[in-house]
Structure to design on (283 residues):
C-alpha cells in the first residue's frame, strides 16, 4: 500500500511539473498571439488592395502580353509551404502537410520551405525537389528576406523551370480557428465575370509595362501576407493546444489526488484494524 501511495504521489508531482510547462507556454503564446494578430490584421488591407490592383491590370491584358498571365506549360508547380518552427501546436502543421499531399501535382513538385517543421517534413522526400528553405523566418519577418524568396520564385518562373506558383499557409480566422489555405500566385488569372464588371482605366506607359513592373511587389506582398497570417495562426493553435493540455493535467491531478486519498484512507483503516486485532489478542 505504501509503495502504491508513493507511486501516486510521484506521478502527481510529475503531472504538476508538466502543467507548469504547458501553462507557461500558454502564457507565452497568448502574448505572441496579440502582437501577431495585430500585425496580420494591419497588413491584410494592403495586400488585399495589392491583389485587387493586379487583378484590375490583368483584366486589361489579352493573356499574351505577359509571361505572368500566360497559360502554364507542362512544367512542375512550385509550392511555397509555410509551417511552424516549433511543435506543440495541435494540428497546425499537419493540416498544411495534408493539404499539400492532396494536390494532384504534388509528385514532382518543387518546394520552397518556410519554417523548421516544413524542412523536417520534406527535406528528404524523393518525390519533391526542395529549391530553398528558410527556418525561423516568421517570428522576425523582414521584407528583405521575403524579397530574396521573390527573386528565386521569379527567376524560376521566367526561365520556365516551373509553370505555376502556389502558397500553402494557414489563414488566421480567430484565436480558436485557423484554416489551411492554398492560394494561386502565378500565373495571375481573373474570372471572366469579374472582368466584365470592371471599369476601364488608363495606364502609362501601358497596362503590360505597369503589370510587369509591379509583379515583384505583388509576389512579395502575397508571401509576406501569408507568413504573417501563418504566424498568427501558429500562436493561436499553440495557445489552444496548451490550454487544453493544462486543463487535462488539472483533471489528471484531481483523479490522482482522489486515488491517493483513497489509498491513504485504506492504509489508515488497515493500521487501525491491525491495532484493534492486536489489542484483542493481548486480552
Amino acid at each position: 500500500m505504501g509503495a502504491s501511495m508513493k507511486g501516486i504521489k510521484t506521478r502527481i508531482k510529475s503531472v504538476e511539473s508538466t502543467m507548469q510547462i504547458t501553462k507557461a507556454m500558454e502564457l507565452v503564446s497568448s502574448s505572441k498571439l496579440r502582437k501577431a494578430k495585430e500585425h496580420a490584421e494591419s497588413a491584410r488591407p494592403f495586400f488585399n488592395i495589392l491583389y485587387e490592383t493586379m487583378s484590375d491590370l490583368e483584366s486589361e491584358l489579352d493573356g499574351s502580353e505577359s509571361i505572368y498571365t500566360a497559360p502554364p506549360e507542362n512544367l512542375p508547380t512550385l509550392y511555397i509551404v509555410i509551417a511552424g518552427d516549433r511543435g506543440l501546436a495541435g494540428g497546425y502543421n499537419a493540416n498544411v502537410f495534408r493539404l499539400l499531399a492532396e494536390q494532384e501535382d504534388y509528385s514532382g513538385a518543387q518546394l520552397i520551405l518556410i519554417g523548421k517543421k516544413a524542412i523536417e517534413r520534406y527535406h528528404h522526400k524523393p518525390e519533391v525537389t526542395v529549391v530553398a528553405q528558410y527556418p525561423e523566418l516568421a517570428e522576425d519577418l523582414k521584407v528583405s528576406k521575403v524579397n530574396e524568396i521573390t527573386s528565386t520564385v521569379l527567376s524560376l518562373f521566367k526561365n520556365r523551370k516551373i509553370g505555376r506558383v502556389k502558397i500553402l499557409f494557414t489563414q488566421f480566422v480567430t484565436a480558436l480557428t485557423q484554416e489551411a489555405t492554398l492560394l494561386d500566385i502565378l500565373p495571375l488569372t481573373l474570372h471572366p465575370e469579374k472582368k466584365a464588371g470592371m471599369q476601364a482605366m488608363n495606364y502609362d506607359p501601358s497596362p503590360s509595362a505597369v503589370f510587369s513592373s509591379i509583379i515583384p511587389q505583388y509576389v512579395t506582398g502575397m508571401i509576406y501576407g501569408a507568413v504573417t497570417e501563418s504566424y498568427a495562426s501558429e500562436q493561436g493553435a499553440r495557445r489552444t493546444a496548451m490550454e487544453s493540455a493544462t486543463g487535462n493535467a488539472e483533471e489528471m491531478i484531481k483523479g490522482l489526488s482522489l486515488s491517493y486519498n483513497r489509498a491513504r484512507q485504506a492504509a489508515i483503516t488497515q493500521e487501525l484494524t491491525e491495532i484493534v486485532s492486536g489489542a484483542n489478542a493481548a486480552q
Q: What stands out?
A: Residues 207-282 form the longest helix (76 residues). The radius of gyration is 28 Å.
